[in-house]
Structures
1.
Amino acid sequence: MESSAGYLPLREALCRLYSQRQTHVNPTQVQITSGCQHAMEHALRVVCRPGDNVAVPTPAFPGYLALLGQLNLNAVEIPMTPAGPDYESLKAVMHSGEIAALIINPVCHNPTGVTISDDYKRDIAQWANNLKIPVIEDDICATLNFSEAFPRPVISYDTDGWCMLVSSISKIVGDSERLGWCLPGRFRDAYMTQVAISQISGPYFRQKALANYLNGSRYASQLRNWRGQMKAFLNDASEYLSAELGSAIEITSPSGGYALWIRLPDYVDVTEVRRQAGEQGCDFLPGEVFSLAPRFKQYIRLVLIPPQDERYEKALKKLTGILKPLLTKAKPQPAAGSVTAAAAHQGGCQASWLVFAGGGVGVQLNILAHKNNHIAFLGADL
């Protein structure tokens, strides 16, 4: 199983890096994979069976939703807030006895950029252990955290192996390098056996190159520079968009990562904006792909990756040129009880989230079946 688990010096290097984040594992507890999505797929295959329900905070990385559909698993959507997944909603779903696993992206969440508190991470790990519910933690953007060099993952609070962690080097060295890993916890044997059957062995030379890079003196300094460039880029882009488009748009303030999550007014047709943007050679992901319900139709995700050069400046000018005429239209007043955007103050910056205007206080859980995709939804009345 040595060769199928991955290049030993690479697994040792990853153990060293995770120890800096108070996560202590040995190389036998690390499986090298062909990227983060590959690691996530195997984790779901190990802990779930077709027809199971999997909790997922939304907006969510579209790859999660596609993977759940491919594996015939049901997504139970947990609403995000500026502090992370809605605490009471997630707690209730974890204790409902109706989910087989939780997928969570606790550090630099994609697409909102939210990082949850250490106390919240501890609670999630405790729920997982007490309730024996596997938690699959996507750690791919953790190294891009702007305020904390070594943020603790949920798995660092795990005491009984019910938390798994998946990640990749792609956000540091580029998407073309499909190398990832998994810390599978108590599911190590089943996980490693499944990977061994599917790939036998991994790309030796790429794994060796990555091990040399992680063990070298340049990795830490390059990562610091990369984080600084990314933070400056996102701040500059956010300030530019706010200055050009005013208060009609709402931009989240990410704790890290490489994207801005932006809400456009209800009267702006996001599909039309994207069509015009495509004609001018720029693009973004529409918010509707981040949920299986029509919750984020007025949102867009902009990916901004250094270097901050003329290409991005031109693209942002094109985008604002498309939006300005659309934003001059009169804004209709929302009806009572309709879904609107509410501004929430986070770290001195405005962050926009979907809430139900006119709804009652408390949380009402409704798990419904989507007859085409066999997907379950969590409705929260906050």
2.
Amino acid sequence: MMTNLVSFPGLGIFDITLNKVAFYIGDKPIYWYGIIIAVSFIAAFGYGLSKAGKLGVTTDDITDCVLLAIVLALVFARLYFVVFYKDPVTGTNTYFQGTAKEIFLNCIALWKGGSSIFGVLLGAVIAVFIMARIRKIPAGTVFDAASVCVPIGQIIGRLGNFVNCELYGVETAPDFFLRMEINGAPGVHPLFLYEMVWNVVVLILAHVAFKKRRFDGQSFIAYIGLYGLGRGVIEIFKGQTHMQGNIKISCVVGFACFVMALIVYIVEYAKNKPDPMRLYINRIRQAAKMVILKNEAVCETAGGAQEGESVICEEDSLPCENETTSADEGENT
């Protein structure tokens, strides 16, 4: 179905017609979901690049991490979904039924829908660790950039779920003020809206953590903990799609992220005293300052050089011009 009729009776909003197709190029439909996801990526990526200088890394460092993260995020998002998927009707994992070829094609069919945000995060984290090692930069600095830009992408991206009428939960009470009715069906929890609102909170708190960082990766740990907590709660209201027995896997993963982040925070603050030099950007600035001071000292000792000579400062490609004159200057020989 390309169009859906959506209402929020408790908010006084009725009969919003949502068309999944934005426009056509020839016979090819261009979907709103794809446009919204593209906008969310551009916004998040652009904002992440703006933070590079404050972290001591280059825009090339961020770009390389993002490119690899896109690939691994897609792989792990799909992998997480198909491994833990349970059909709501049969209670079985339908992705692993049929011939080997059918199973393989079903598992890689991203275009048919089905992915997990926790899989996205896992793939992105692995990508950053790999690329940070290659680029010889602390992974924590890139993670901190992600902590304040990923929520932006998530907030915008959830509008795509709204247009597609997806990411909704179980039925609500008939008088629940936030209930969402799709095509006249009973009201359900608008989980996309819950997550949008929570991601705004996460974005604000991640920025607070970013400004008060005491170690590389601190604001990312805050993001993981806060997002995991919110997502764990939201998953309670979701249908039974990722179950292991009677346990909702995504709930467990979300709350586990919160607990692990909290433990890391407590340990870091208990074991380590505040030290600005734990931040990569401060170490770089200190190293640059030491080079400048060393060069100034070298240049000051260059006064004894003969006229017309220049002294090359250590660790610097610029010559220190000899500003003193020879004792014999102006004399005829």
3.
Amino acid sequence: MSITTYATGISRLRSQLALYSKQKFTGRLDIAVMGRTWSLYISLGFLVWGTGGLHPKRRWRRQLVHCGHKAYASPITFRETDEYECWDYHALTLLSERQAIASQQIMSVVQGTIGEVLFDMIQAIATLPDPNAFEIKPRLGLRPSSTSTGILRRKWTLEIENTLKEVEIEWQRWVKAGLVYYSPDGAPYVQDAQQLRLATSALLYQKLSGLVTGRSPLRDLAAIAAKDVTFLGRSLSWYFRHNLIGLRPISDLSTCYVVTRGDRAQSPLSRRLKDNSNAPIVQIDSCARSCELMANLLKPQGYDLIALQEGIQALPLLMKYQPSLIFLDSTLPIVNGYELCSQIRRIPDFQNIPIVILSDSNGFIDRMRSNLVGATDFLTKPIETQDAIAIVEKYLAQAETWTSNFANNPS
């Protein structure tokens, strides 16, 4: 990458966006860079939304993960009559309309989405051989959602100049980490297992090989671990440079929303929570003493706990008991807790149920691995009374909130 090329290209982008801001432009800007196109939606000179890139559905999900919203676990319900340009922005307005998302969470999603889109544009421009080899095409009046729900509230918009400066700072951090030509949308995988074993301890190799499976892009891994993507990229950069870990392309998710023909359609999540409101809690743990201690913690609080000590037989028993929450030990024999969690998540009835991994280790990689397989939360053994009760109350209370929200806003 030529520093001059980058400076020239980004200066041109900055000046053109500043002009649209000054003119209080409202509409869509399409930015084309070497066959790739991103779009920025602007209202009266302020940034409203951004689209484009390789993984719009993954981006939507991780922004919800980042802001702590649970809608990522189940598709958003659209009405057949809804009109929109951007399904993700429309989903955000529907959540707001249904009072199912807080204002600060909306702002977090808007900032994160626009930030990722601008970052990808800057990376594409920075690696151009010709800084002028991109173009911006304005389309007046276009909005990301319909006039009924797509209210472009000023408090949900961003200043162009300040937002671009913040993204440029993030890009410079990415450059300093030696990641100029590495896309955060790439999925890390073990490129040379033999050399990686020689370069790491047995424990680190085991943890790395369990994480960098080529099934999740860097951005998803960072969101799941609640870490900055540049921090994660920097942590792996040595392995990238020595060809021990590589990045491969990965496809986007299948869908993040469903369309219903009736205004009274009920969400699958709503039905699931309603049916499960009085269900027991299940603990899958080969240690009888651990199960006994958990029962002693929860039963005085009025919770029913069923202990299962063999992970290999757990799936049919879970189908039988239909629990409201699952505690899952990470060190089960034969099939460990992480593998079992992944299997549980493949069952439609259990895609939204809270699963809490119990582990003797509290390391960063352990927590990331639990999130990768679909766990909802993580507790470190030995488990304290207040921690166990807080986890149960947190997720069962959320279930009640979701049920109430969908009952009041079923569309």
